[in-house]
Amino acid sequence: MDTLRARWRGPHWKRWSFLAGAAAVLLTTLIVPLVALALGVDPTSLTLLVLAIESVGVALVGAGFLATFFGDRAHGWALIPGLIFLDFALLIGLGAAAPRLASRWGGPIFLLGLSLPFWLVYLADRGQWWGLIPGGVLATLGVVAGLGAFEWSGVASAGVFFLGLGVTFVIVWLAPTPHGRMRWALYPAVPLLILGALLATPFATLADFVLPAFFILLGVFVLWRAFRPRAS
Question: How many domains does the chain fold into?
């Protein structure tokens, strides 16, 4: 087991995974079409084979980045490209194996997959709280894209979008970090949640009145805090 771990963490495994992945992508994008044309074969008839090889190649590149992270947990950044490449490989493979499913659900699956590495960056290092924001935004976009497959109305989808953004900042506010709680995150969270709640209900027209009133009251509160007498 220790020998396998050493090989996984070693630089040779990472190097070969990158090279194999790059070679697979090069093979499918350049060599296979040229050989097919030389043999008089229609390249489009090899689409399934090309997509399968591309999926494996892109996954190998992602595995190389993940090996960088597992070899040294200080390289948390490697989670982002590693999982993005794996997400892209999944999308390619899904397009090859189930094109109808990919055409309908490929977008939501891809966006949700893109959000995953940012959540993991925070879980690997609590000091990287910034990862929660792109993670939450991408997850929200994935949910909204999924609702589009059910033909939700634009206003209701917009409500879910703003609710998702608000929840994202609430998570930032609640998340433990070495610097304490990120209290500033409540300021964008509250108006986003209010706007989302209004748009996601039959009372969407109230947003035209409630939001301006809210921002006016918020401005008055900020001015009051700025100019109120300070206790000596």
Answer: 2
Q: Are residues 133 and 58 in the same domain?
A: no
Cα torsion through 220, 221, 223, 224, rounded to 10: 110
Length of the chain: 232
Do residue 131 and residue 209 come from a single domain? yes
Q: How many CB atoms within 10 Å of residue 77? A: 14
pTM for this model (two decimals): 0.74
Q: Give the CA dihedral 201, 203, 207, 211, nearest 10 degrees.
A: -90
Q: Which DSSP state fits 77?
A: G
Going residue by residue through the chain (232 aa), what tens digit of pLDDT does each one get? Answer: 455 445 445 555 555 565 665 666 665 565 656 666 666 666 555 667 777 777 877 888 888 888 888 877 788 888 998 899 899 889 988 888 888 888 888 889 999 999 999 999 999 888 899 999 999 999 999 999 988 777 666 667 888 899 999 999 999 999 998 888 888 899 889 888 988 888 777 666 666 676 677 778 777 877 877 777 765 5
Q: Does some domain include residue 33?
A: yes
Identify whether 154 is part of a domain.
Answer: yes
**Does residue 109 belong to any structural domain of this protein?**
no
Domain span including residue 143: 127-223
The answer as to whether 143 is a domain residue is yes
Do 8 and 76 belong to one domain? yes
Tell me the C-alpha distance between 28 and 42, whole Å: 14
